[in-house]
């Protein structure tokens, strides 16, 4: 109603931009920090969409890592618990992978659910990236290897809800997250604990350093270590 035929095109355009989030169509985000690469509408849509991922966060994380290892088989060698896995089915059923994938997804969840709080998210990701300096085997480019597996896993979980619009939003978001992680890793001013080097003596070959958990929060790593003792 109220739309004349001569204005049909503009009305169609307007209806596509209108989000009936509340009775009056006003979202709970008025504006976002200009340093954030997402605008207010993208931020709101991301947080709404992410709820679908959060309901299946473990499954999405496992899918992400399975795809990561399929495209970067060499990365499996640096994870102590994955060296003896021979097949994709075995990898998908591995309890340790599910645990690790969930920890990584929880870090992403923390960033995305608070994405409109730029200072918190940037600082948190910067610190998380810096903790990876502890791992002698880790390289900053490893962060970026998770980009496509993350996008594909999100796409699978969301199904038809993964529209072209949301594809663009998720790509912008993961780029922002990975850049913050990389910046933290490369920041030599960050105080870090002694490097963790786990050496594989099971084979007669040059020493290979391995890590147990990457892309996770420091508190999560400590919780895991305490659980082992």
Task: Kindly describe this structure.
The protein is an all-alpha fold and 229 residues long. The protein has helices spanning 8-17, 40-54, 57-71, 88-92, 95-113, 118-131, 141-144, 147-158, 164-186, 218-228; strands spanning 198-199, 209-210.
Topology:
Elements: H1 8-17, H2 40-54, H3 57-71, H4 88-92, H5 95-113, H6 118-131, H7 141-144, H8 147-158, H9 164-186, E1 198-199, E2 209-210, H10 218-228
Antiparallel strand pairs: 1-2
Notable characteristics:
229 residues; two-stranded antiparallel ribbon; disordered C terminus; 10 helices; single chain; globular
Please tell me how large the radius of gyration is: 21 Å
> For the largest beta sheet, what order do the strands appear in spatially?
1-2
Q: Please work out how many helical segments DSSP would assign.
A: 10
Sequence stretches where pLDDT stays below 50 over 5 or more residues: 4-18, 20-27, 193-211, 221-229
Helix/strand class: mainly alpha
Shape: globular
What is the share of helical residues? 55-70%
DSSP summary, beta strand count: 2
Largest sheet: 2 strands, antiparallel
Order of helices and strands: HHHHHHHHHEEH
Task: Look at the structure and give the mean pLDDT.
Answer: 78
Beta-strand content: under 5%
Distance between the termini: 68 Å
